[in-house]
Structure formats: structure tokens, C-alpha cells
What does this fold into?
Amino acid sequence: MPSTVYETRNRRQPVYGPTQFSEADYITGVSVRLAHQLEAALVKRGDIPVTRPLLHRFYDTHRADYEHRPFDQAIADV
It folds into this structure.
């Protein structure tokens, strides 16, 4: 077992997380990353409009999703 992060990096081993991924995990990770990059590019190009009034309307519509609840109450809802 390597004793430092530098030894781990030099051996090309992960510092944290799984030591290997399944093919499905890899494809899922790549797909999620690509989806985020696509969304960011479309917003930047103006194809997806993001304005302050739209964000406020979304927040007001989904306010319950963003309200803070005590941890024990949130667990009870699951």
C-alpha cells in the first residue's frame, strides 16, 4: 500500500474512489459529463434562455424542493 498521495499518483492508482469502473459506470460518467457540457454550450450560445425572471419563476414554482428542513424530518420523508 502506498504511503503518500505522490506514490499513489506515480503508480497511477486512484487516491479515492473505486479502483476500477465497469463499462456501464464509465459510459454513464461520460454521458453525464457530455450532457452538462452540451447544456452549458447551449446556454452560452443562447439556444437555452436563462434569464433572472425565468430563474425566479422556476424557483417560485419549485420552492418546496429548496426549503431547508431538519435532518430527521427529511429522513422521515424518504
The chain has one domain: 5-77. The CA atoms of residues 55 and 61 lie 10 Å apart.
